[in-house]
Amino acid sequence: MNPETHHRRQEAAPAPMSGLRLNTLRRTTARALLGVGVISLFQFLLVWFVRGAVVLPLLIAALVTLVGVAGILRRWRFAPSVGALVALAPVVTVLAIPLAGSTLLHPTANLAFFGILLVQFACALIALVGGATAVIQNTQGREQPSSRWLSPFLSGVLGLVLGMLLLAGIVSANPPSTVASTATNGMPTVHIAGSTFLTNVVLVPKGESLVLVEDDSVEHIIQNGTWTPSGLPHPQTEPGAPLVHSLDLKGGSLHIGPFTIAGVFHLYCTIHQGMSLTVVVQ
Asked: What is d(CA 236, CA 139) in angstroms, rounded to the nearest whole number?
């Protein structure tokens, strides 16, 4: 082999870790990963400022995701494959939070949080599919046009997100105001999901008790009173109401009563702002 041929082969050989063209597929993957990372960081800051709790897994997932974005933009060869795996980290972290799982099962309980989770999972799906496709292209050693399937795929994900948000918004605008269900012993039952009562008004026959059933493991402190329209707690025990003081509910059920006097009574959760229940006894 002469020196000129050897020099040409060295020029033609691809760089082991960089030099990949930043095509549409990789740009889309980077943008989706960026969305996942920004939302994860927002969730971390929100929990920190509102609840005063530092959820380190959320922060770590956000930082790792942003590192994956930097790797794709710097055209590291293995960045798409790492990005596809990194996209799953925030999703797994968020699902480990009881309130997140409850919100996905009951979107109307917290429509804003449901929308954030939906966008985050959509970005994760796009990053996962885009990263996996880029890995396949790297393995085959050639880039294939992605415009034929990428645009319909993105349109489908967008349509799915908008459709679910629209449906959840319609249901949330018309919340149920009657008894959610009836226990086997005939007592009125109200279910709790996330940070809300699934029905805001319940009818209780005079002399009966009320059953509160939590569908997840989010902690609630129930007592007499309500939240004011301005968002302030207003503890108050109406005459004739059963005394309910700081009852801890974290999974399972809770019996309140009996309600021996007809009237209108109020219960609220001291932890979650706006979580109030009106009990009408007749």
From this structure: 67
2, 11, 13, 15, 189 from 7: Cα distances, Å: 9, 6, 10, 15, 80
Element (H, E) at 222: strand 220-224
Task: For residue 276, tell me if it sits in a domain.
Answer: yes
Q: Are residues 79 and 185 in the same domain?
A: no
Query: Do both 143 and 122 map to the same domain?
Result: yes
* 139 and 202 belong to one structural domain: no
DSSP type of residue 281? E
Of 166, 189, 192, which Cα lies nearest the Cα of 179?
189
Top-confidence range, 15-29, 55-69, 228-242? 228-242
Global pTM value: 0.61
User: Which has the closest alpha carbon to 50: 271, 269, 276, 277?
Assistant: 271
User: Is 58 buried (19+), middle (13-18) or exposed (0-12) by CB count in 10 A?
Assistant: buried
* Structural domain total, the chain: 2
Candidate ranges 31-40, 44-53, 184-193; pick with highest mean pLDDT: 31-40
> CB under 8 Å, gap of 24 or more: what pairs does 179-183 form?
179/203, 183/211
Instruction: Please answer whether residues 216 and 194 qualify as being in contact, where contact means their C-beta atoms are separated by less than 8 angstroms.
Output: yes
pLDDT tens digit string along 234-282?
999 899 899 998 888 887 888 898 899 999 999 999 988 888 999 999 8
The Cα–Cα gap between 263 and 267 comes to 13
29 and 70 housed in the same domain: yes
